[in-house]
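Researcher: Structure prediction, please.
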Amino acid sequence: MSGRKVEVTKLPSMYGRRLVSGTKPVYTEVMSLLRNIATVGGITMISRILGFVRDILVAAVLGAGLLADVFFVAFKLPNLFRRLFAEGAFSAAFVPQFAGYLESHGKEVARVFAEQVLTVLLWLLVSFVIVLELAMPWVMLGFAPGFVRSPEQFDLAVLLTRITFPYLLFISLVSLLAGVLNSLGRFAAAAATPIILNLCLIGSILWLVRFTPTPAHALAWGVAAAGMVQFCWLLVHVLRAGVHLRLPFPRFTRSVYIMLTRIAPVAIGAGVYQISLLIDTMIASLLPAGSISYLFFADRVNQLPMGVVGVAVGTALLPLLSRQVRAGDEVGARYSQNRALEFSLFLALPAAVALVVIAGPVVTALFERGAFTAKDAAATAGALATYATGLPAYVLVKGLTPGFFAREDTVTPVKIGLLAVAVNLVLNLILMGPLLHIGIAVATSVSAWFNAALLIMILHRRGHFAVDVGLITRVPRMVIASALMGVVLLVSLGQMESLLAGVLLERILGLTGLVVIGLLVYGVLALVMRIATVDDLRRALSRRPASA
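Model: Predicted structure follows.
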């Protein structure tokens, strides 16, 4: 630990023992981490809710015909490259380097590195976007070959994709600016960028549509505008943080070259994951009609807690671990990772139990109307309950991968991800016969647990992770509290049966009641069983630093 002083004193809280590493208490850093997780999670929750509103409006104006198919293709193409590159891959490579320079050399050296990356990234992206804009008719032949049968549909898809594709340029630059802000401990502005996308699309439906030939045109322009607004939003916040990025002549320095080489494995892993999703869809297409829809709607609901907790933990943890690792503070890094996992499970375990128990009322209240029948709701609820069993594992994966990325290892998580994809595929083929679409959900859940287990095993073997007393003593209590909450919800289901079977408003009221009951029961049990205390929550949510 490079001779850094470590003091251990007893602290009566859910966060175990207070560590002081060097001159800065790790406990203070952990409280800051939890505040950042709460910030990102809360803002992500708002974004997901707005996303549901956006989807409802898009369905209302586009329906499920030609225009809908064309817009979804036009939106999916830049988003495919965004998922492959701009999201996880770029952050995993850029943030550890930037945070490392920030910790070891100061803000000015980190700023120069960010400038170098910005310039190279900008020219690469501009060149890529121009080439694909010119080649879009040929790209569309490979991406949506079925549109060739309708020249009108094909030409419209090419036009709308040309409108939306610059979004890739801006959202990639947004990832860089978000990495800078996150490394500086400023998470709110970056977490709010998906809200801007949803607001732009909602605005295009409510206002811009009157000025365009079709609603699909309005939505395409909304996507392009969202990228520009997101970029300007974060640029202002980066300037406010005192980081003034210029555009020097692009040079492939050693630092930039190292970052680009670390992006490649994560991007490949993301591509494999996208292929895995495609394989799931292909297998589901072999099952009875409706199977794809059951899995889609179930996954949409399951993604809410997965995104809120998982994304928040991964986003907030990576910069902190990167600084601690660069400073040689392995004790602090292990402590931070334990607390992040503890906080993740504190939220994910009750969410998983609740979704298993009340999957039926959730699906019925959200989707059962019109052409979506009670039979469809029951099939979707079965998939949702099954997906939910893998929710804690997914969140653990998000909290464990920063342990590799912070140490500038982007290859190992990808190799583990490939093994998990293989497990998923094999289980799909085995279980699709006897369990139909539920078998696909089982395979997804099992592969997530397999992924989490391998990540823990390898981190532990390398000496980068060890379960501490706080995690060992509190996770069993979380499991018990979540199970007791599930029993109460099960009893409440029987008491509310008539309300949950009523008209839409009654179903929504019943579901809201169940959610409130679950939150209250788990909250009280958490306090009684000392999983957390009122002081813990106050300190985690307070903007003031915890006292040493």
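Model: DSSP finds 23 helices and three strands in the chain.
Researcher: Thanks, that helps.
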